[in-house]
Amino acid sequence: MADSTKEIIHGIIQGFRDSILGISKILKYDASIDNSEGELKKNEPQTTLARRRAEKQKLKGNLEIKENKKEATVKQRLFQCSVWNGGVFLTSIVLFHWALLPCLLWFTELIFAGSENLNITWLWISSLLSWIFGALWILPLFVISKIVNCMWFQDIADAAYVRSRGRPTPINLSVLVADLLFSVLLQAFFLIQSTLATFLPIPGVGYLVGFIHMSLLYSLYAFEYKWFNMGWEVHKRLAYIESYWPYFLGFGIPLAFLTSMSASAVISGCIFSILFPLFILSANDAEESSQVCHSPLRLFAPVVMITNILFRQSVKSKSTPTTQQSSSPKKQTRITEPATRR
């Protein structure tokens, strides 16, 4: 029992350390394609003989340029995520709630000073402005941010993976679509499960269980890009997290803690979008714990079962019209022939 507790604590500390120290590796991505191209142009030989000699290094120069492009893509996407989610989205929310509304409240108090209708008037004004701001600004911006962030996160993950591990494992398109749909549906159910866990009647336990859910989910988000490029299927990814859960719990604690500091889901989403690319880089360079936990945490088992049931029902519903249409004996024979050959 003591050894098991020590392993769990050691795994949590190791995961927490890797998530924080991995962020510092962004300093490695300091090469710039513009500087490299400038140096190549500056040192470009002028004589014909020198140019012929330079052709021998052409392949090497192209590889260096491609490598710099990947590094530039990482830094560029990180900057775009920070500017968009922090400079535009989050700043607009802060200015509205902590600058515009207080100024309007002061102006309203100045106009309706001593009036009994001050509170009712301000309630109507603030509610109307909040609704307009949310409907015409927050909601469209939130949807756009989700789409744009997904593309930027993928670019960061792919560029970092190619730089450190080489080309991703090729995957069939049908397998890619099925894996993506299954993973998105499973993560949605797991998020609902974590929300329901916070309503446990025991004080403090509900928050702790929900926090563990979110930490593991954020670790899955971060490592999923690397594992997918390695060719791991979704069931293998989940089984790996459940077997080494102390490490992934520790890895997801920083991001789960920072996003839980705000009660607003929108602000938490902005914080997540700003910091998450850094954790993608940490996960890409991290060396996961090799110590299997003797007490696996099967938190994903319920949502995996539900997702499997839904996928089976959808497959059955798609295959039913095909079987109904094949009513003639010849058609039925043609359908069953491949199964007989197997």
From TrEMBL:
<feature type="transmembrane region" description="Helical">
    <location>
        <begin position="244"/>
        <end position="275"/>
    </location>
</feature>
<protein>
    <recommendedName>
        <fullName>Etoposide-induced protein 2.4-like protein</fullName>
    </recommendedName>
</protein>
<keyword id="KW-0812">Transmembrane</keyword>
<dbReference type="GO" id="GO:0005783">
    <property type="term" value="C:endoplasmic reticulum"/>
</dbReference>
<keyword id="KW-0472">Membrane</keyword>
<dbReference type="GO" id="GO:0016020">
    <property type="term" value="C:membrane"/>
</dbReference>
<feature type="transmembrane region" description="Helical">
    <location>
        <begin position="204"/>
        <end position="223"/>
    </location>
</feature>
<dbReference type="InterPro" id="IPR059112">
    <property type="entry name" value="CysZ/EI24"/>
</dbReference>
<dbReference type="Pfam" id="PF07264">
    <property type="entry name" value="EI24"/>
</dbReference>
<keyword id="KW-1133">Transmembrane helix</keyword>
<feature type="transmembrane region" description="Helical">
    <location>
        <begin position="120"/>
        <end position="144"/>
    </location>
</feature>
<dbReference type="GO" id="GO:0016236">
    <property type="term" value="P:macroautophagy"/>
</dbReference>
<feature type="coiled-coil region">
    <location>
        <begin position="49"/>
        <end position="76"/>
    </location>
</feature>
<feature type="compositionally biased region" description="Low complexity">
    <location>
        <begin position="317"/>
        <end position="330"/>
    </location>
</feature>
<comment type="similarity">
    <text>Belongs to the EI24 family.</text>
</comment>
<feature type="transmembrane region" description="Helical">
    <location>
        <begin position="173"/>
        <end position="192"/>
    </location>
</feature>
<feature type="transmembrane region" description="Helical">
    <location>
        <begin position="83"/>
        <end position="108"/>
    </location>
</feature>
<feature type="region of interest" description="Disordered">
    <location>
        <begin position="317"/>
        <end position="342"/>
    </location>
</feature>
<keyword id="KW-0175">Coiled coil</keyword>
